[in-house]
């Protein structure tokens, strides 16, 4: 305990900065390639379904490895783990930059993902270990810059690079930072997280991979392939069965790969539920806005990315500030104010039209981001604060995994709602146009008919987007209701942790 106490008195800021940079470039890389996919399709002569695997495959590797991160963090020192993860990410980045074929590029992305999957849980766990509970808000607020800003600025940076240079430049930009972080880690990192001599249960890893991987793939492809596609519902069913089996197996194990019993802590369970609901609502802005801006309004991808940039910068500026406010006032006040702002701005997004100005869109999106910055990290940190230190790896792994899964579910849900509403509105608008057409007038030319059909589709899609934003507003209201039940968690004492361990052991003995 003396080592932990010394760490708490003087947190290792230099070491955290190295982890911070590594996590930032890894998470930035996750969204960096999205805008470049059309260029890669052209260069390697592959179709849209194939090229999408550069994003889908990256996400699946994350979904498989993040649940296992709890085991890795407990079993290995944080220095070895970070150097291994950063080494894999750097090797994948170099291979992607030089990739002579699409197959090599896809392999490189998988190698990158295998490294980046460990970064986020590892950084969170080091910060939870290095800072006492009463100072974690400020620390985790700074960490929020990585979690929120890196994915947000990815498309903007990517849009500018692809417009002026080759898509390979995206990897060339990331590579020097990766190498520098790797070198600094080899010389400067110290071990601060406790290790336990535990063994990996291979069957649990298989169940976890099928469970989380199946759900992520199924929900992520549902918006494109449709819910009636056998691959979609097949993978969702297989993932659900495997996940239930995985959870039941973990509950029966003395040293589980992922400890689900931490949901007995009420504030952690509540924060996890709120975070999942927010992740679903958050994706409405990230998915629906580009469709509205680019497809309906005809604004370029570069300008679309720039529209979202002030919001990302706002979240980056506010994240450390809200962290300090969390330390002073707790999560409930911040979450209720932030969610109220999110609900109001999301409702305004449900009333978009063809004349909504670019400035209005930037302003609304930035204010919405301001509200979001007051919710995500304070709520998550409050939940993690209730956990004993030994359960921090499980808490960070579960939070990161469930956010990925709920984000995929949210994307699929909102895209499905938008498509269904668009389809029904298109039929109604087409029927109205036919009914209002004067029979005595000459039939419109093919060009005029095509223009009319395009106008109908744009109007229908606008209705679909607005309705999806309205549903997203209602989802955010659920999070607001849950936020009123948040209570400030006091620092756990060693005695309380020991009593809880003893009671759990007694309960297990009785059940046996």
UniProtKB/TrEMBL annotation:
<feature type="transmembrane region" description="Helical">
    <location>
        <begin position="53"/>
        <end position="73"/>
    </location>
</feature>
<feature type="transmembrane region" description="Helical">
    <location>
        <begin position="138"/>
        <end position="161"/>
    </location>
</feature>
<keyword id="KW-0472">Membrane</keyword>
<feature type="transmembrane region" description="Helical">
    <location>
        <begin position="268"/>
        <end position="293"/>
    </location>
</feature>
<dbReference type="InterPro" id="IPR036259">
    <property type="entry name" value="MFS_trans_sf"/>
</dbReference>
<feature type="transmembrane region" description="Helical">
    <location>
        <begin position="111"/>
        <end position="131"/>
    </location>
</feature>
<keyword id="KW-0812">Transmembrane</keyword>
<keyword id="KW-1133">Transmembrane helix</keyword>
<keyword id="KW-0813">Transport</keyword>
<feature type="transmembrane region" description="Helical">
    <location>
        <begin position="85"/>
        <end position="105"/>
    </location>
</feature>
<feature type="transmembrane region" description="Helical">
    <location>
        <begin position="12"/>
        <end position="33"/>
    </location>
</feature>
<feature type="transmembrane region" description="Helical">
    <location>
        <begin position="231"/>
        <end position="248"/>
    </location>
</feature>
<protein>
    <submittedName>
        <fullName>DHA2 family efflux MFS transporter permease subunit</fullName>
    </submittedName>
</protein>
<dbReference type="InterPro" id="IPR011701">
    <property type="entry name" value="MFS"/>
</dbReference>
<comment type="similarity">
    <text>Belongs to the major facilitator superfamily. EmrB family.</text>
</comment>
<feature type="transmembrane region" description="Helical">
    <location>
        <begin position="362"/>
        <end position="380"/>
    </location>
</feature>
<feature type="transmembrane region" description="Helical">
    <location>
        <begin position="199"/>
        <end position="219"/>
    </location>
</feature>
<dbReference type="Pfam" id="PF07690">
    <property type="entry name" value="MFS_1"/>
</dbReference>
<keyword id="KW-1003">Cell membrane</keyword>
<feature type="transmembrane region" description="Helical">
    <location>
        <begin position="167"/>
        <end position="187"/>
    </location>
</feature>
<feature type="transmembrane region" description="Helical">
    <location>
        <begin position="467"/>
        <end position="486"/>
    </location>
</feature>
<feature type="transmembrane region" description="Helical">
    <location>
        <begin position="305"/>
        <end position="326"/>
    </location>
</feature>
<dbReference type="InterPro" id="IPR004638">
    <property type="entry name" value="EmrB-like"/>
</dbReference>
<feature type="domain" description="Major facilitator superfamily (MFS) profile">
    <location>
        <begin position="15"/>
        <end position="491"/>
    </location>
</feature>
<dbReference type="InterPro" id="IPR020846">
    <property type="entry name" value="MFS_dom"/>
</dbReference>
<feature type="transmembrane region" description="Helical">
    <location>
        <begin position="333"/>
        <end position="350"/>
    </location>
</feature>
């Amino acid at each position: 305990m003396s080592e932990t106490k010394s760490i708490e008195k003087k947190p290792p800021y230099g070491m955290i900065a190295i982890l911070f940079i590594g996590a930032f470039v890894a998470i930035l890389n996750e969204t960096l390639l999205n805008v470049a996919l059309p260029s890669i399709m052209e260069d390697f002569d592959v179709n849209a379904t194939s090229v999408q695997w550069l994003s889908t495959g990256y996400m699946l590797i994350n979904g498989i490895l993040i649940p296992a991160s709890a085991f890795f963090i407990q079993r290995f020192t944080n220095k070895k783990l970070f150097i291994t993860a950063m080494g894999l990410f750097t090797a994948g980045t170099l291979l992607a930059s030089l990739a002579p074929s699409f197959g090599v590029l896809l392999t490189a992305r998988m190698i990158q993902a295998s490294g980046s999957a460990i970064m986020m849980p590892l950084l969170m766990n080091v910060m939870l270990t290095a800072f006492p509970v009463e100072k974690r808000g400020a620390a985790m607020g700074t960490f929020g810059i990585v979690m929120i800003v890196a994915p947000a600025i990815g498309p903007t940076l990517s849009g500018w690079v692809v417009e002026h240079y080759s898509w390979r430049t995206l990897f060339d930009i990331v590579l020097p930072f990766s190498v520098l972080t790797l070198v600094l880690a080899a010389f400067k990192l110290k071990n601060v997280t406790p290790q336990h001599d535990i063994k990996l249960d291979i069957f649990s890893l298989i169940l976890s991979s099928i469970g989380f991987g199946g759900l992520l793939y199924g929900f992520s492809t549902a918006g494109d392939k449709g819910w009636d596609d056998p691959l979609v519902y097949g993978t969702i069913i297989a993932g659900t069965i495997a996940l239930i089996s995985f959870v039941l197996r973990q509950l029966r194990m003395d040293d589980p790969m992922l400890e689900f019993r931490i949901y007995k802590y009420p504030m952690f369970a509540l924060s996890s539920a709120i975070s999942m609901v927010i992740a679903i609502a958050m994706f409405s802005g990230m998915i629906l806005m580009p469709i509205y801006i680019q497809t309906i309004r005809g604004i370029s991808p570069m300008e679309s990315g720039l529209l979202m940039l002030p919001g990302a910068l706002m979240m980056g500026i506010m994240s450390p500030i809200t962290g300090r406010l969390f330390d002073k006032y707790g999560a409930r006040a911040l979450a209720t104010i932030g969610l109220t702002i999110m609900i109001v701005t999301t409702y305004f997004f449900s009333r978009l039209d063809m004349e909504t100005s670019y400035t209005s869109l930037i302003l609304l999106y930035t204010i919405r981001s301001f509200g979001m910055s007051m919710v995500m990290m304070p709520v998550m940190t409050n939940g993690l604060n209730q956990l004993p230190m030994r359960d921090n790896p499980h808490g960070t792994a579960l939070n990161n995994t469930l956010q990925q899964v709920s984000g995929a579910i949210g994307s699929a849900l909102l895209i499905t709602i938008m498509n269904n509403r668009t389809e029904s509105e298109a039929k109604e608008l087409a029927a109205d146009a036919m009914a209002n057409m004067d029979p005595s007038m000459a039939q419109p030319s093919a060009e005029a008919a095509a223009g009319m059909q395009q106008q109908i589709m744009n109007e229908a899609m606008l209705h679909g987007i607005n309705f999806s934003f309205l549903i997203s507003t209602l989802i955010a209201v659920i999070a607001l209701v849950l936020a009123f039940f948040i209570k400030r968690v006091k620092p756990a004492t060693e005695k309380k942790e020991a009593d809880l361990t003893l009671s759990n052991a007694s309960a297990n003995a009785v059940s046996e």
